[in-house]
Amino acid sequence: MQFLRSHAGFLRILLLTVFISSLLLPQTYHPVSAQYTPIDTGSVLKAGTTITVNSILDVINYTDGLCTLREAIITANANRGFTAVAGECTSGIGNDHIILPAGTFMLTIPAGNGDNQFSGDMDILDDLTITGAGRVCATPGEKCTIVKQNIVPAIRIFQINEGVVVNMSEFGIYSGREDQGWGGGGIYNAGTLTMDTMIMVANSANTIGGAIYNTSSGTATISTVGFANNSAENGGTIANYGNLTLDQIGMTLGTASGIGGCIWNAGGNFTIQNAHLSSCSAANGGAIFGSSTISIANVTIKNSSASTGSGGGIYAYNTTGITNVTFSGNTAGNQGGGIFADKYARLTLLNSTLSENTAVNGGGGVAFDGSGDGFLNIKNTINTNNCNGPITSLGHNIDTGSTCGFTETGDLQNTNPLLGPLEYGGAEFDTHALLTGSPAIDAGDNQGCPTTDERGIGRPKDGNNDGVAACDIGAYEYHAPKISVSDVTVTEGNSGENFAIFTISLDDISFTSTQVDYQTIVGSAGNTDFDDKADTLTIPAKALSRNVSIPVYTDLVHENDEIFYLQISNPVNASLGDSSGVCTIINDDNFKLFLPLLLK
For residue 546, which phi and psi values (nearest 5 degrees)? Predict the structure, then answer.
């Protein structure tokens, strides 16, 4: 007793320490009852672990031996290492990794009273990685993972809370719907979200961000993701108030009844590069409406519309930088079929191509309000449609008419830029190629010229073969592809005729046909060993190679291996690469077959 009295303070501290430690120990967690039971630390996963989902059902039952997606997220949210009934979800401490098998995960638990993780959308409350088996089932038997909802009233799919870091990859998000005014039919992100190799289809919201709403506290980095048929009042596919980066994106059929058919950058910062936006529609800003800062590079925006307003491709209201962008086939019910810049916009357009855009009230290519303190500067850019407003040329632009006021150094008015049709240009997205003889070739200003074109082809190049590399005007950098001939090996054979098949190829796609002369040249093999041949070969537009077949004569004479050459020359719409192909004829005659004849 004396010991206890003299050490009472110490014992109180000891008991408190034990109690607190018990709370920190890994435990068995029953989310429904919210009760924890300490478990044997010998079986504990002390860090984030892999949670393998084994059921496509949307149920919460911790004794049925199934691990569902919702259960996996709930257990990961607990952020405590615990064991479970065999087959159930088992999480660790920290960033868990949920693995989804192939299949369709249909959310069927309707939203309850209040916003919680047990019903309705799936709330992510702690750092988490989710990986599926693939985003698209492109061919029969191919594995993919789809997460969607089938509830009345409908629900969104994922909600990511503030301060939470989430990584998603290799699955699709379909048919989410948010109609309570919060936005984000597929994903509501207030944390830090990274998405890679995914697809989002047919998500919607009655306010903003049909597929994704990135809030003012949110940071979203999205790459290699496809978006289709998403809709909202504003920001049909994405609405951004935070920091948003899009890279390697395909986005189509985004619709908004208000602004930003595909994207509304409402606040924060927005960067998009290496992307393809098509068939987006809204009242204003058919593809993109920029209320805040935007940086756009290496993007194609096509066939999008501002039905009753302005900016079929882009409506810019704030600081906007556009580099290596193709605007094609966009329309506006008012002004700016390709681009509309509001009076407060500060827009710089560099090395871009605007073609086949139209607007009812002027500025088919570009329109600028000009009544405020904004500006619209254009350099190294092609516009094949009319302009409207006080546009400032920084030189080296091409206008098919004279409405843009391009009168600075290097500007060309009333000039046909000789553009090819909008089509695949050897990169991920469609471009208007410069055809051979285009006045845009080597006519740009190297100062400020981007280091690549929209496709990622290096700039500047010597497109007109005058020995000087100069930047081209527009989003496409022309260069005559190099044409080369391959080496080939052929076995001679003992009877009949054999063929040496040379491949003559281009190192890049060409939008015009290419021609080259070829001629066989004797080497150690003479013209009694092969058919001496000379002709002209044509490689059609957009093809990369063609073959030339040279007959090789067979015999029964034992001899050494021999060679001859195929020489190419005089290329049209190409420059010479490797101009000499070597054919090696392998002798396959056996000397022993002739020994009896020699002895005889």
Answer: -145, 155
Domain final position from 464, 479, 494: 479
Asked whether residue 301 is domain-assigned, the answer is: yes
pTM: 0.83
- Among residues 183, 179, 190, the alpha carbon closest in space to that of 234 is found at 183
Closest alpha carbon to 360 in 377, 346, 340: 340
In a domain, 338, yes or no: yes
**CB 366 within 8 Å of CB 391:** yes
Residue-averaged pLDDT of the chain: 88
Considering the domain architecture, whether residues 330 and 448 belong to the same structural domain is answered as yes
State the average pLDDT over residues 512-539.
93
Q: Residue 495 sits in which domain range?
A: 482-586
Same domain, 447 and 471: yes
Instruction: Please name every residue paired with 506 in a beta bridge, in sequence order, or none if there are none.
Output: 483
Give the CA diameter of the chain.
126
Q: Does 18 have pLDDT greater than 80? A: no
Tens of pLDDT along 551-572?
999 877 777 899 999 999 999 9
- Does position 253 have pLDDT exceeding 80, yes or no? yes
* Total domains present in the chain: 2
DSSP state of 284: B
For residues 264 and 283, the answer to whether their CB atoms sit within 8 Å is no
**Least confidently predicted of 28-42, 397-411, 568-582:** 28-42
Local confidence band at 593 (pLDDT 50, 70, 90 cut-offs):
very low
The CA–CA distances, whole Å, from 75 to 51, 105, 127, 452 equal 9, 18, 12, 47
CATH at 540: 2.60.40.2030
DSSP annotation of 41: G
Instruction: Give residue 22's pLDDT.
Output: 38
Q: What's the Cα-to-Cα distance from 361 to each of 238, 386, 457, rounded to whole Å?
A: 28, 11, 36
Is the domain of 335 the same as that of 411?
yes
Q: What pLDDT shows up at residue 427?
A: 55
Alpha-carbon gap, residue 211 to 595, rounded angstroms:
81
